[in-house]
Amino acid sequence: MKSSVIIFPGSNCDRDMDVALKKFGFKNQMIWHNDLDFPKSDLVVLPGGFSYGDYLRCGSIAGKSKIINSVIKYAESGGLVLGICNGFQILTETGILPGILQQNKDIEFICKNVHVKINDKSNKYFKNIKKDILELHIAHNEGNYFCSNDDLKSLEDNSQIAIKYCNSKGDCNYNFNPNGALKNIAGIFNKGKNVLGMMPHPERMIDKYLSGEDGSLFFENLIGNLK
Amino acid sequence: MEVNEKIAIDHGLSKDEFAKICKLLKRLPNITELALFSAMWNEHCSYKSSRKHLKNLHTKGKKVIQGPGENAGIIDIGDDDAIVFKIESHNHPSFIEPYQGAATGVGGIMRDVFTMGARPIANLNSIHFGSPQNKKTKNLLRGVVKGIGGYGNCIGVPTIAGQTCFDESYNGNILVNAMTLGLVNKKKIFYSKAAGINKPVIYVGSKTGRDGIHGASMASAIFDDKIEEKKPTVQVGDPFTEKLLLEACLELMTDNSIIAIQDMGAAGLTSSSIEMASKGKLGIEINLNKVPCREEKMTPYEIMLSESQERMLIVLENGKETKAKKIFEKWNLDFSVIGKTTNSKKIELYFDNSKVADVPIDLLAENAPMYERKWKKNKLPQKIKFKKENFKSLKISDCLKKIISTPNISNKQWIWRQYDHTVMGDTIQKPGGDAGVVRVHGTNKAVAASVDSSALYCYAHPLTGGKQVVCESWRNLISVGSDPIAITNCLNFGNPEKEKNMGEFVECVQGISEASKYLNFPVVSGNVSFYNETKDKGIKPTPSIGGVGLIKNYKHMITMDFKNKNNIILVIGKTEGHLAQSVFAREILSEKKGPPPEINLFNEKNNGESVSKIISESLVESCHDVSLGGILIAISKMCIMGKKGAKLNNIKGLTNKFDYFFGEDQGRYIVEVQKENLNKVNKILDENSVHYEEIGEVTEENLTYNDELKISIEVLNDAYTKWLPNYMDN
Question: What range does the domain containing A150 cover?
Answer without folding.
Answer: 2-226
